[in-house]
Design goal:
There is one protein chain. The protein has 276 residues and is α+β, with helices and mostly antiparallel strands. Helix content is 17%, strand content 36%. The strands form four sheets. Strands 1, 2, 3, 4, 6, 7 and 9 form a seven-stranded mixed beta sheet that branches. Strands 13, 14, 15, 16, 17 and 18 form a six-stranded mixed beta sheet that branches. Strands 10-11-12 form a three-stranded antiparallel beta sheet, with no helix packed on it. A hairpin with a 6-residue loop joins strand 11 and strand 12 (145-146). The model has no long low-confidence stretch (mean pLDDT 94).
Length: 276
């Protein structure tokens, strides 16, 4: 999956005292796009370093991967034009190297969008400042504290004997997927599984069991994967406002997603290969 970058390791500890060096990697975010050097022939990915800029706003420390530090800037002027803006759909179109840079992009996008949407206090409207103790935005006027938003969501592999329920979204992602959805207020994760399967496919489920989780920064998600079985009638009543396809598919007929980045694809692979 996208976060599987071993032996490298993400360090997400907050370091307000960190100062960017000329070799620090710089995150520039503009409307869902990141500034990168992407060689479309070799599929090699690189981030600009501080030394690649004539000037920037004060760099804000984000995280490190091993000994590489990533900082975020909002205003900048480059020395040369070899870097371009790429959206996440483009970054998910190929296997890019190194993979830990792709994972960094997912994570950086989440943080950059959070910084931009929390510039002002949602309670009194004053401009927030960065906490000097933790990763948080603090209002100096009313004291309101805002932490990075993380949205819990479920990925559900619904099993019916030797078949699994595959779906396709009506818009957006074009490949096969599993039932998925966000947890609502007052729900347990298991209740989210039951509700989402009922809403999208009109099916009751039982034997809900947790599989694995995955950070998914491009939607500020923490994804939790579950398998379960059909409980009773297996007739699919598809929610056509959200899905364009929902069918029971035999193991050998499961068509996997083109990249092995997602929890969804790993769960589909497990079923296809008989591990579930």
């Amino acid at each position: 999956m996208i976060q599987d970058i071993f032996p490298k390791k993400l360090s997400n500890s907050y370091k307000p005292e960190a100062v960017a060096s000329e070799n620090s990697l710089i995150i520039v975010h503009e409307q869902g796009q990141l500034l990168l050097d992407l060689n479309e022939d070799t599929k090699n990915l690189a981030y600009p370093m501080l030394k690649d800029f004539k000037e920037t706003s004060t760099p804000i420390y984000m995280f490190s991967i091993d000994d590489e530090d990533f900082f975020y800037v909002t205003d900048y002027q480059l020395k040369e034009d070899r870097f371009q803006l790429y959206n996440m759909k483009q970054l998910r179109s190929w296997y890019l190297s190194p993979q830990h840079y792709v994972f960094a992009a997912f994570t950086a996008l989440q943080l950059a969008e959070w910084y931009e949407t929390t510039k002002y206090c949602g309670k009194c409207g004053h401009e927030n400042i960065h906490s000097n103790k933790e990763r948080a935005m603090v209002c100096p006027h009313c004291g309101n504290i805002i932490y990075p938003r993380i949205n819990p969501a479920v990925i559900v592999g619904v099993i019916n004997g030797d078949k699994i329920l595959l779906t396709k979204y009506r818009t957006g992602f074009a490949h096969y997927a599993l039932i998925a959805g966000f947890t609502e207020i007052g729900e347990t994760m298991e209740e989210t599984v039951q509700r989402e399967v009922m809403e999208e496919a009109g099916i009751k489920v039982k034997n809900i069991r947790y599989y694995k989780s995955q950070p998914w920064g491009i939607a500020s998600d923490i994804l939790l994967g579950y398998y379960c079985e059909v409980d009773g009638d297996d007739t699919i009543k598809m929610d056509s406002s959200e899905l364009k396809f929902a069918e029971w598919v035999n193991r050998e007929d499961v068509v996997l997603q083109p990249l092995e980045y997602s929890l969804t694809n790993e769960m589909m692979t497990n079923f296809k290969e008989g591990r579930i």
